[in-house]
Input
Amino acid sequence: MIDSRTPDLVHNNLFRGRGTVSVWNCVPQKRVYPFSVVLWCSLSAQGIVGRHKQQAHHQVIVCISGKGEIRIQKRAIPFEKGASIAVAKGDVLSIHNLEETELIYTITKVHAE
Output
């Protein structure tokens, strides 16, 4: 299970957000074009990943467990188990955990041409 080991990164108040995001790199050994990275993430209860711009990649975010919302260009999109959200290069987004438990999700980043 991916979250049974120490996270590869731990961010506090990421992008001026609130709480802690733990991040595991799912495929650290080799990149396969067009994918640049696949991440498993855990956002603390009531946590927020603050507003930030996707600088270099498109990405797909998939909710594994929990309930929250993703705001893209200030538009709120419900985000709960099974939901997937595409985020284009250049979009501004934030991730909000609406629950008292962790929000678990994956991020798959794809090279933008």
Observations:
- The longest strand covers residues 35-43.
- The CA atoms of residues 18 and 38 lie 23 Å apart.
- DSSP finds no helices and ten strands in the chain.
